[in-house]
Amino acid sequence: MNFLSDILLATAAIGAAIFCLVLSRRLRALTTLDSGMGKAIAVLSAQVDDLSRALRTAQQTARSSAEKLDTQSRRAEAACRQLELLMASLHDLPAHPPAQPPAREAPEKATEPPHSRPLSSWNSASARRPQAAPVADPVAGAARGPRVLRRRPVVGGHG
Q1: Is 68 left (phi over 0), alpha (psi -120 to 50) or beta?
Q2: Which burial class, exposed, middle or buried, applies to 121 when counting CB atoms under 10 A from its CB (0-12, 13-18, 19+)?
Q3: What is the pLDDT, as a whole number, of residue 55?
Q4: pTM
């Protein structure tokens, strides 16, 4: 009986040794860097490093963009305040401009060269055009009240 138990024990030990050898080869195949799981782990760690660098640059870019946006919004608010002051100062202006603009100094008249005079009577009218009538002040028109536009009745009953 001792002999039988020794044989069974030796057989179990040899089986365990073969099982350990197979497991050792499989683990070695998984951990090699050329192929298998080791290669996959190496590639993934390189990608993690690349992504962390990209994340850092994105954060730096976002910070600088936020700072630029902040300075631009401050400048815009300052310009808005200035425009509000200008608009408020426009209300202080008189409603009607002065009747006549200040007189300008007339330049000394030089003698006209002969070619500046018209050669015939049809050209003399265009040379002495009347000055245009002064344009009505839109601010003064607004003081009188709004204009109401109405449609004219159409002759013939179509409208």
Answers
A1: alpha
A2: exposed
A3: 97
A4: 0.36
